[in-house]
Design a protein that fits this description.
The structure holds 2 protein chains of 2 kinds. Chain A is α+β, with helices and mostly antiparallel strands. Chain A has 15 helices and 8 strands. In chain A, strands 2, 3, 4, 5, 6 and 7 form a 6-stranded antiparallel β-sheet that branches. In chain A, a hairpin with a 2-residue loop joins strand 5 and strand 6. The radius of gyration of chain B is 26 Å and the shape is globular. The chains are: A alpha+beta, B mainly alpha. At the A-B interface, helix 2, helix 5, helix 6, helix 7 and helix 8 of A face helix 1, helix 3, helix 4, helix 5 and helix 6 of B.
Chain lengths: ~350, ~325
């Protein structure tokens, strides 16, 4: 016992140790709990979601096929003067339910609903996940989001790396002016230029198109700076040697600088994927027709409907979360390293 | 596994490689004509084109928009009104009673945003600092704990909003928990003050990990021998914290505070999905006001939205300049060391 309570380094306990354990324990629950609760809830049937207090795990009512009835009937455990037994409900009128014994389907028993409990077992309502694809354009929303994310990330990587190459490996007049200009754009968040941006995008005919979502977001100054800082560490001698061998500037960029910048490109790619997948305000403004909705906009539109079917909405939310959770599980350390190093995002 | 990775890599890069090779001859020609500076221009062209069209041009146009009126989208069809939109935004009979203002919603949004910014940033910074201090301790599996706090940062604002809408629902799990321990359930999202506090709590939840991470990097940059020297002198822990940790963390802390302020002023996504600005206008913030006036309401008024966004942009630019100044000072200091 004393072994468990002893701290590493053999020092005694301090009140900060207790705070640490409490904070970390609470943090674990608070940070993951809501997402776990979302996933658990997304497997509940509408009846299960309506329950208060809610159950932790998804349950489904058990049913039985009874002779003389086309549909499976829900099962209940009835406890009254006649003892305890399992019956199936035929119909319910007010507080009285007409029930039958599955073994003896001819005889109808009248039971007060206060005397019975539904028979339930853990069951996952997978139809929550199929419904959104069958009933709404959820598949299209997903494809739109994938298209926006992949295309925008590729363009970001290409244009940012080209600009970073020019700004790190060439001496030309006005270079510092360009750097300042790009730095200045860091200051201007999208929310400040919504109105004119909207008019420009509609002037070039990109309203309600995915390209209208992609183009204004691809030029991230943070990306240019991240890559430039990295490329500055590539020795110029390497480039000079290639020029001696008659490599063109394009080849130097493509065959030498780009492969050497792979770690920085990877970080930018991860960031770009998360940013573009999660974008909301700008797509919300550009996209007003359901067939071009991205997942985030579609999800928000569905959540804003009058009769929200939470079972579908929760399942859609889980699906929207999946790519980001994958990034978290497999690539989280690149992101944390990137943020700690550059203050990115 | 490694073989699979190389193969997948090859499948992706091979077409790009062919494309790059195809581009080489014309670019060689361009290089011969324009020289090395010309190539710099070529490499800069895509980024500069996108910046000019989608950032610089809108910036200039925004000022023009803010001086015009009418519902028309294109500038050529709008009439010039000078500073009338700004006057409309700011004019009130009595500035202490927003209902006497022409644009009472703007003032409500302004007050909400100011209050939100102060409360959220204060609570966020305290929580992030505590988290960073704890993560900086001699922990087992530190990277796991760091990741745990970082998880919500990656979630999209819409997902964050919906998760919490579900939890904070009148019949949600939080009220079930309160009920179970004998407390009165609260209608979190439908009572004005609770809704406001909910937005603060949810945005802190979503961003805590990010700020804790930056502060943690700052803490880890503090030389360990300072702590060792303090320990040898038998300095009490509280004194070590106030005399070593906090002063050396301060430069980072300032940058983080300004960054948090910049983000808080622009709060939109999570709040919009969580409460939609409601109940009433209890959680209406500036960005949502701009969105509603410019795009969502029946009587669109792009000029008014532009004027409001310029006022907000002014605040943001001041904050950003402060941040850049602080960051540069930190950089110079760390170079001196």
């Amino acid at each position: 016992m004393t072994f468990l309570l002893k701290r590493r380094g053999g020092k005694g306990w301090h009140w900060t140790d207790i705070v640490t354990f409490l904070w970390l324990g609470a943090g674990l629950m608070v940070m993951f709990g809501p997402a776990v609760w979302l996933v658990l809830s997304s497997f509940k049937s509408p009846a299960g979601l309506a329950e208060f207090p809610p159950t932790l795990l998804p349950y489904q009512a058990q049913t039985a096929v009874v002779e003389g009835h086309d549909n499976p009937l829900p099962l209940f455990v009835v406890t009254d003067a006649a003892g305890s037994r399992t019956l199936a409900e035929v119909r319910r009128v007010g507080t009285v339910a007409q029930m039958v014994d599955p073994a003896n389907p001819a005889e109808i028993v009248r039971v007060n609903i206060a005397d019975r409990e539904p028979v339930r077992s853990i069951g996952f309502a997978w139809e929550n996940y199929l419904g959104p694809f069958e009933r709404f354009d959820f598949l299209r929303f997903t494809m739109n989001s994938v298209f926006v994310t992949v295309t925008a990330t590729l363009i970001t990587l290409l244009s940012s790396s080209m600009a970073a190459f020019a700004l790190s490996k060439y001496e030309f007049r006005g270079r510092s002016a360009v750097v300042v200009l790009i730095l200045a754009t860091l200051m201007i968040p999208l929310s400040v230029i919504l109105v004119p941006l909207y008019s420009i995008v509609s002037a070039v005919g990109l309203m309600n198109t995915l390209w209208g979502v992609i183009l204004p977001t691809v030029a991230t100054p943070t990306g240019v700076f991240l890559l430039r800082q990295y490329m500055l560490t590539i020795p110029d001698e390497l480039l000079e040697a290639a020029r001696m061998d008659h490599a063109s500037e394009w080849q130097i960029y493509w065959r030498i600088v780009l492969p050497l910048s792979a770690p920085a490109l990877a970080v930018l790619a991860i960031f770009s994927v998360v940013w573009r997948w999660n974008d909301f305000l700008w797509p919300l403004i550009v996209l007003s027709r359901p067939e071009v909705y991205t997942l985030q906009v579609g999800l928000n539109a569905y959540a804003g409907e009058l009769n929200v079917q939470w079972n579908y909405l929760l399942a859609m939310t889980v699906i929207t979360m999946i790519p980001v959770v994958l990034v978290f599980v497999f690539l989280q350390r690149f992101i944390t390293a990137g943020i700690a190093g550059t203050g990115l995002k | 596994m490694a073989g699979l990775k190389t193969m997948a890599g090859a499948v992706v890069t091979a077409p790009l490689g062919w494309l790059a090779r195809l581009l080489d001859p014309p670019l060689r020609l361009w290089q011969r004509v324009a020289g090395q500076n010309g190539m710099a221009a070529f490499f800069l062209a895509p980024t500069m084109a996108i910046f000019s069209i989608f950032v610089l041009l809108p910036l200039v146009l925004n000022i023009a928009y803010s001086m015009t009126s009418g519902p028309a989208l294109f500038l050529t069809e709008r009439s010039f009104v000078g500073g009338a939109q700004y006057a409309r935004l700011l004019s009130c009979e009595n500035h202490f009673d927003f209902s006497t203002c022409v644009e009472d919603q703007f003032w409500t949004a302004l007050r909400n945003t100011a209050l939100f910014t102060v409360l959220q940033v204060a609570a966020l910074i305290v929580a992030a600092t505590v988290t960073a201090l704890i993560l900086d301790r001699d922990l087992r599996a530190r990277s796991f704990w760091r990741a745990a706090f970082f998880f919500p940062v990656l979630l999209s604002p819409v997902v964050v909003g919906l998760i919490w809408r579900w939890i904070l629902d009148r019949d949600g799990v939080l009220n079930a928990g309160l009920d179970a321990v004998g407390l009165t359930p609260v209608n979190w999202l439908l009572e004005r003050d609770w809704a406001f506090l909910s937005v603060i709590g949810v945005t802190i939840w979503a961003h805590l990990g990010f700020f804790a991470l930056i502060l943690l990097a700052g803490l880890q940059a503090i030389p360990r021998d300072l702590y060792e020297a303090a320990e040898m002198d038998g300095t009490p822990r509280a004194r070590v914290f106030w005399r070593i940790t906090l002063p050396l963390l301060m430069p980072n802390m300032l940058v983080v505070i300004v960054l948090a302020l910049i983000r808080a002023v622009q709060v939109f996504d999570e709040a919009f999905v969580l409460t939609g600005g409601g109940p009433g206008t209890a959680t209406l913030f500036l960005t949502q006001y701009i969105y509603e006036v410019g795009f969502a309401s029946l009587l669109k008024n792009p000029g008014l939205a532009a004027a409001a966004s310029i006022l907000m942009g002014g605040v943001l630019i001041v904050l950003t300049l402060v941040q850049l100044g602080l960051a540069r000072r930190n950089e110079r200091r760390s170079k001196l060391k």
